[in-house]
Amino acid sequence: MKDLDIFFRPKSVAVIGATPSSGKIGNIIIENLLGEGYKGKIYFVNPNYKEILGIPCYSSVIDCPGPVDMAVIVVPALLVPDVMEQVGKKGTKAATVISAGFSEGGEEGKEREKALSEIADRYGIRFVGPNSLGVISPHYNLNASFARASPMAGPIAFFSQSGAFCTAAIEYSLGEMFGFSAFVSSGNKANIDDADLVTYFAKDAKSKCIAAYMESTRRGKDLFKALDKASKKKPIVILKAGRSKRGAKAASSHTGALAGSDASFDAVFKQTGVYRAKTMFELFDAAQALAHQPPMVEDGIAIVTNAGGMGVIATDCAEDLGLELSELSKTTLDEIGKVCPPTWSWGNPVDIIGDADTARYANVLKAVGQAPEVKGIMVIAARQAATNLYEIAKWIAITAKLSGKPTVACFAGIENPESENFLDSRGIPVMPVPERAVTALHALRVRGKYLSTKGLLDTPQPNRS
After folding, report:
1. Hey, is 383 helix, strand or coil?
2. What is the pLDDT of residue 459?
3. By the number of CB atoms within 10 A of the CB, which of 118, 166, 226, 441 ranks highest?
């Protein structure tokens, strides 16, 4: 198998260990496959049943009447090697092993995982797992996982070593209204690992940004090569856990693999242009910005705000991250001064005062968008008596489109689904606190510096929706 297409666009899937018993993993998987509108053929395999949900059930994957592109294995760990042997005899070349009880569970489990890998190698099978939540391909309505919810389709390719992190990420993404091109719980990574996934997503047309949660890797050199090559094509964000000694120890216990030197990971990420996130917020805030917004190729952001305190917080955060605010020219200051009361800040951050209405935001954003010294824009809007968030959202989108400058928004401390959804649909990240919006801009600046250093600024970049 030259690439991993078959995992995300299989024409047929067999669930080995399917069951009608509600709440069982084998039942959740078949419900997800049936409920998402997957168009391919679905086979159920379990020797204990003749049919499940009115659909024929087969004793072995070998008995399935047609070809099986991908097998989803959810049987007790002791049975998995024999099942993989049957998968190989069927001629199936892709498998997702949900079952746990392998290298994460001690020496006996490690031996079982080794045997599983040897069988797969013998038949030329690529597999995800074991100890995996599953694989989801939202653009193709494929949910071959036991997650309780399905993510939306979008431009972010995501993989995680932790299944629980996957389920949390799905729930979080649904609340924040962003989607995925592919979603993989890599589990123990006995066969398909980080390097394989990075390499594949770098070539996948629907994936505009690669994001990952990682605790360890077994092929450090291969991962370095994959990241180095992929970063030249697409932005990558990784949350590498185990930065502290205790965290590294916990990661090793969790995955059954050595977490490795954090300093080594940090050096690899910096060298290959990977944006390293330290929190879940940073991981997905950066990924959303990088998937939709152009890179920030020069220093100099403008912060436009109707809340002075929020502007100060954003400024402090920008300085902490090394993200420079632009020195506004006299021309720009004069243009802003024409539409603001005399008490506005006359500097950057551009505090346009709490009574700022839609017209003031529109005119100030026009001035900032046209200012040659401004290379990136952050807009803060706190709900005040004169604030119409939806109308302001429209002007943010207009400014971003006309200026072509990377743009993020912060609708401070509030939820306003109509305006947030409007900006999300146009690829403009909108955050509830200024620190997160600054982080999104910082990721765009880091990307811009990397591309500039590598002489890759002509590389096609994300287009706004």
Report:
1. coil
2. 62
3. 441
Angle (deg, nearest 10), helices 163-176 and 280-292? 60
**In DSSP terms, which residues pair with 209 in a beta bridge?**
156
Homologous superfamily of the 295-453 domain (CATH): Succinyl-CoA synthetase domains (3.40.50.261)
Contacts (Cβ under 8 Å, ≥6 apart) of 296: 375, 376, 405, 406, 441, 444, 445, 447, 448
Check if 151-292 and 295-453 are the same fold. yes
H-assigned helices in 91-162: 107-123
What pLDDT, on a 0 to 100 scale, did the predictor assign at position 415?
74
The superfamily (CATH) of domain 151-292 is Succinyl-CoA synthetase domains (3.40.50.261)
Q: At 446, which amino acid appears?
A: V
Question: What pLDDT is stored for residue 254 in this prediction?
Answer: 45
CA-nearest of 73, 280, 335, 69 to 168 is 280
pLDDT, tens digit, 9 for 90 and up, residues 146-163:
999 999 999 999 999 999
Provide the residue ranges of all domains of the chain, joining segments of one domain with +: 1-130, 151-292, 295-453
**Single pTM value for the model:** 0.94
Phi/psi at 250 (nearest 5 deg)? -65, -40
| Average pLDDT of span 240-251 | 65
Q: Kindly report the CATH class assigned to 1-130.
A: alpha beta
Residue 377 parent element (H or E): strand 376-381
Beta bridge partners of 411: 381
pLDDT at 358: 97
